[in-house]
Amino acid sequence: MNGLPSSLPRVGSTESLFAEPLAFLARARSQHGDVVVMRERGPIFSRASDCSGVIAVFGEHRLRQILTEIDDFALPMSAAAKLALPKNLVNLNRGLHSMREPEHGRHKRLLTGTINRELFDAHRNGIRAALDRLGERLKEDGRIAVVSRMRELTSEMASHVFLGPRCHEEDAELAFLLSAYFTLRREASSLNARDPHVYRAELIGVGQQLDRTLRERIRRYRNGPADDRAGLLRRLATAGLPGSPALSEDEIVGHANVMFVSSTEPVAISLTWLLLVLSQLPGLRRALRAEIAGRASSPTSPGGAPLLENVVNETLRLLTPNALMVRATTRAVSLQGVALPAHCEIVVCPFLAHREAGPFPDPLAFSPSRWETARPSPYEYFPFGAGGHFCAGRNLALLLIREVLSTLLLRFDFVLDGEQSIDWRIHIMLMPTGDPTLIAHPADERRDTPSPKWRGPATDLFHFAPGLS
């Protein structure tokens, strides 16, 4: 089988796709159903020259198959492969997403067993110290460019978790290299990127330095004494797979880079949207503050702050950073009765899946209370992916989000710095365009001035439920 089935509907022109990807996909689904051809030949989002066509797929049952059968539906060619980067730099992005079974399962068990609550608790003092430093800066100047500041904060917190207590001068350099390499890859992979080859020389320069620094650190950890406060990198360097020897140096490098990125950018963007949404809801901010202050247990403990958990869930539902996902068939397969050729690019849209009326009545309403009864399946709500390739760091990410939000809300009341037009874009993730600014007032300060309102394209993504203030 070479082409896409003639029985599948076609969308026609994809001219508006890159300008309005989410609206384009919503129209395609509304007009053509759950499986629709977007392009007959060649890729849209991936870099594969042998792509046999592109389809968009919707609906829980089809998404379940795509996300669980990871040997048949794999990640497509990466920018690193398309740019013919050196082998060691291709390896920098060789985490779980590039693995097949049984290798994938063994590594997944090791990572999920390593990136856990115990790791978070071991480095909680460092995380809180980073929050204290942010708090002191906000006391001096309450204005906050929220995207930039959340990126700085999550990078600092992830450095503690990833590297452990700072005891080496090069820790800051390694954290910088990890962030810089991700930023370059993000630019090269963006939907609206220039020719990716423009980034090749810089990617190689930063990537080689990152690869060398990671390997030097891994060797030091393997030859050094045990450390109860070890960060994730040291734990990976000394961990073994069940029934297998310790991870190889190449394997650790690949996992380390991916794990650092997954605990920084998604967390930063999620916190950005959470603070922006809460800036519009003074009553909800007060309720959250009262819940956090009035509970003996930590807000990050299971059931420790149910309202906080509901607010996080609802924000990740409507403003999921992971708005688009792409897979590619590795061979000719049947997708719920639809015959697909090998090398078929498949577009999955969590943004739209999270707006299904079945699991989420009144789906465009921001209503945290829905989570008191909502029980969506992992293929109806999957802000951190689902199936075989769900994010191994999702529990850590959620712990960091709750820790940051609960700490900041107790100390500060965040409002917009005047009325602002807030736009959005998909830049690997769904994120605000530009860098909206907030003002952090002391939480105990009484104010009668209404919170400034946001306007612009972001207001079209959802509306606040009646009665929510």
**CATH homologous superfamily classification of the largest domain:** Cytochrome P450
Q: Tell me about the biggest sheet?
A: 5 strands, mixed
Which of globular, elongated, flat, extended, rod-shaped describes the shape?
globular
CATH architecture of the largest domain: Orthogonal Bundle
Strand content of the residues, in percent? 5-15%
Q: How many structural domains in the coordinates?
A: 2
Q: What is the strand arrangement across the widest sheet?
A: 1-2-8-5-3
Give the helix tally. 17
- Count of individual beta strands: 16
Helix coverage percent of residues?
A: 40-55%
CATH names the topology of the largest domain as Cytochrome p450
Category from helices, strands and their pairing: alpha+beta
Low-confidence spans: none
Binding site for heme: 391
Cofactor: heme
Pfam family, one: p450
Keywords: Heme, Iron, Metal-binding, Monooxygenase, Oxidoreductase
Description:
The chain is of the alpha+beta class. It folds into two domains: 21-86 and 324-353, Uridine Diphospho-n-acetylenolpyruvylglucosamine Reductase, domain 2 (2-Layer Sandwich); 88-323 and 357-464, Cytochrome P450 (Cytochrome p450), CATH 1.10.630. The chain is built from 17 helices and 16 strands. The protein has helices at 21-32, 60-68, 79-82, 87-91, 103-114, 117-122, 124-140, 146-163, 171-189, 200-223, 232-238, 249-262, 265-278, 282-294, 306-318, 350-353, 394-411; strands at residues 35-39, 53-57, 73-74, 143-145, 325-329, 333-335, 338-340, 344-348, 365-366, 412-416, 420-421, 424-427, 429-432, 437-442, 454-455, 463-464. The protein has a five-stranded mixed beta sheet, with helices on both faces. It has a three-stranded antiparallel beta sheet with strand order 4-14-10. Helix 9 runs antiparallel to helix 10. It is globular. The mean pLDDT is 89. Its cofactor is heme. Pfam families: p450. Keywords: Heme, Iron, Metal-binding, Monooxygenase, Oxidoreductase. One of its GO terms (molecular function) is oxidoreductase activity, acting on paired donors, with incorporation or reduction of molecular oxygen.
